[in-house]
Amino acid sequence: MTLSLLFLAGALFLLPAQLHAEGENAPGLYRVDLEGVGSCYDADLSLMLPAYVFAYLDAGALEVSFPRPPAGISVRERVQLLGILAVDFPAQASRYLVRAVIGRSVLLAFDGVERSATGALLAYVYLPADGTCVNLKLVRDGYARVAPVEIPFQFRSEFEMYEQQARLNHSGIWEQQLPRQ
Q1: Where would I find the H helices in the chain?
Q2: How far apart are CA 65 and CA 53, in angstroms?
Q3: Which of 4, 76, 81, 175 gives 20 to 30 Å between its CA and that of 55?
Q4: Percent of the chain with pLDDT over 70
Q5: Is 168 helix (H, G, I), strand (E, B) or coil?
Q6: What is the DSSP track for 72-103?
Q7: Could you tell me which of 90, 132, 86 has the C-alpha nearest to residue 107?
Q8: Which residues, at least 6 apart from 132, have a Cβ–Cβ distance to it below 8 Å?
Q9: Alpha-carbon distance 16 to 54, whole Å?
Q10: Would strands 61-65 and 49-58 be described as parallel, antiparallel, or unpaired?
Q11: Which one, of 48, 60, 44, lies nearest residue 118 by Cα?
Q12: CA distances from 140 to 26, 76, 150, 153, 172 (A)
């Protein structure tokens, strides 16, 4: 091969990584922020990236595999649930995640930032059978707190509304112990 062909081949190989690094929409990833999706319930399941969850790691992190990963995504990846606070992740949330997603196929949707500082994919995890957004369900049922405001994500107002309802209903981590009589 000539030097110019080698350069072109190298440039094409690096292009997906460069796009990802610059925050552009990686090919094959459904980004709710770019699609203008206003609610978790309005996300298009047919456009999401299918994955298989084979392990729960810690604090809202899953190990997944992809049957056909798009450019910039490995066959196996760590996925961190987007929009929820991973610090002080309660045991109820861990139990729910294990029951709901381990050993099952899920669908992933992405937002403005595709990876965390540690390299984990940041995603909304959906159950294909009924369209449940697992991230939102954890907040709605009071099993997780919404991520701090420094972490931007498309569905923040919706997550905050459901967290407030969980607090008012004393659900999950917001349950208050009543005084014994």
Answers
A1: 3-21, 32-35, 91-101, 134-140, 156-168
A2: 7
A3: 175
A4: 82
A5: helix
A6: T--SEEEEEETTB--TT--HHHHHHHHHHHTT
A7: 132
A8: 126
A9: 26
A10: antiparallel
A11: 60
A12: 30, 29, 21, 17, 9
Residue pair 148/65 in contact (Cβ under 8 Å)? The answer is no
Which residue has 């509304």 as its token pair? 161
Q: Which residue has the higher pLDDT, 181 or 131?
A: 131
- CA pair distance 128, 114, nearest whole angstrom: 21
Q: Is the pTM of this model over 0.85?
A: no
| Residue 27: predicted pLDDT | 64
Q: Burial code of 126-159, b = ≥16 C-beta within 10 A, e = fewer?
A: bbeeeebbbbbbbbbbbbbbbbeeebebbbeebb
State how far the Cα of 94 lies from the Cα of 91, in Å rounded to an integer.
5
Q: Smallest Cα–Cα separation from 26: which of 37, 17, 14, 35?
A: 17
